[in-house]
Design brief:
single chain, alpha+beta, 6-stranded antiparallel β-sheet, 22 strands
Amino acid sequence: MSLHSSAIDPKYLPNLPGFRPRQLKTNAQRTSCFDIINGEAYLRPQYIPPSSEPVDDASVTSIGNTIVTKARKQVLAPTNVILNYSAFFEEYVEGQRQAQVRYCNIYFYVENGTIKVVEKPQVNSGVSQGTLVRRTMIARPDGNPYCEDDLRIGNVMTIYGRHYKLYDCDPATRNYMKEVYGINESPETEIPEDGYAKSRQFLDKTRMGGEEDWGKFRSKKNETKIFMEAKLGNGANNAGREGFIKYGNITLKFRCAWDDTSHLYGDVNEYSLSYYLADNTVEIISIPTPNNPNRSRLLKRSKLPKDFHDTTGLGARPPTESFFHYVDFYIGMELDVYGRTLRIVDADNLTREFFADQNMPLSESIVPPPPEIVVHEREVPPPTGFGSEEDSLRSVAGSLMPGPPPVKKMGENKQLSFLCSLLSGGVDDVDRRFVLTYYVQDNTLKVVEPPVRNSGFVGGTFLSRRAVKRTSAVPSSNASTASTSGAIDYITDKDLYVGCRLRILMHEFLLLDTSDSTLRWMEDKGLPRSNVFAVLDKVRPFLISDARNGSLLNKFEFYERQMDKSDPQAGHGPGRVTRNELREVLKEYGLVNPMDSNSVSEHELITIQRAQGNKLPTFEYEKFAQQIIQPTADYK
């Protein structure tokens, strides 16, 4: 037989959603919590209406109800009434055999039945103290909330796994329980002795120096008490104020240095040491630097021990300490500040005057040596082999996302052409001739071999147009002429002249001749080997003595007669010789050596020949001798 829910009285159903029918509110107006008295608003006292029907303590509706016992049914719960009980609980300390007794206060708020547990603070307990349980409603092990009937001296309250035993309450709680509930609380019960606290107290008394100092630990003297004692005739205790009475607020300032370069990323740190004569204390603060503008405190104001000891064990008496005094300080002293060695390097003027008055003059300040500047040379990796060496350097010294290479225009649109031969080839390469073209605009060159019939070589482009590095030996695969800034030493127009041995990549060329336009351009630009006055200055120290006594002219006349004998039909004219005779004359003075780049080159011989302003293959050697003796600007 099923029982329909409509046949059950709703008041016997649990006050939970789904068990009782929904009742719509007829009046949703909120009542005011203020009363207007004489035109002013006052907070209306809280009113809790008594329950009209008895409610079972185990029912759901009893949770949170302020009237749950027979005693509280008759009395309306007053506000701001707090019952204060003293309790304790035992807790075992790790590593100790005896249990630690922890004392606390249990506050019961009568108005809503909430409980708060606060532990009494103890000296050096080693545990966090204060509020153990915040104010809340706490249930007994059977599920019902704690009430006034459960608070009896001698009872044990289990709150969140801890067993609190009530052993006393304050007089106000005793009077309230007797007047309101008619309950006489039991007298204070005995509490167990805390063996752990007793052992701690014995150790601390040993360290403090006596039993009478135990209560003075970290206690401050009341200012009112000091005033009343002074009023009754007890003067202030001036012990420890001798320094202030004698020196006042005089402070000694020293500058110290701590060398920490032995560690990784260490540096020489500077500190300011302040010594206070009033109480012989020391304070050390860092000096701001551009890299560290903040001021940090290395040592707060305190006495600085001379010998730094590690922390002593429990129960051990610390050794007798001696502290630094101002008489111990001097320039150059190494000061041990709790493991850091600071060296005193300087002092301010007031400090020096103070030490001079004490017949202890300070020495001169120690100037630290300038820091060693380490210049790290950047190692440029070898070329990757893709493109030119500049393309490889763009990934080293340039951006990670390189764009198109810039267009280089370092000079005018001019091409310098030279006829050259190959020196690094074999026997079959002796008669091969090449045309080297140098482009002034972008500092590149190209080598082309003119095709020759029945030579065995196809001819054509021998080296495509590119920038070539300047080198004097065959480069290895790991060699690189790039500097630390990423610039490469390339062959320029100053390296090209007739008679030079030019190393291009793996080949060595000898420049044999050049065009007239190339010679004119090099003379107009004043290149060293195309400037006739520079050439004359180069040979003058070797020829000037023979030019003055006529020996130089005699040598030219000798070679002129030899030239006429070999070719009588040439018709060069008197007093004129060719470049070959000039070369032979300079050879007698040791000025011509094809293997020495510092000697007179073939290009310089061409410059001397062209200096007289004609295009003939000969020149007048008497004018040349006169320029050796006395150079003139109208020679050219």
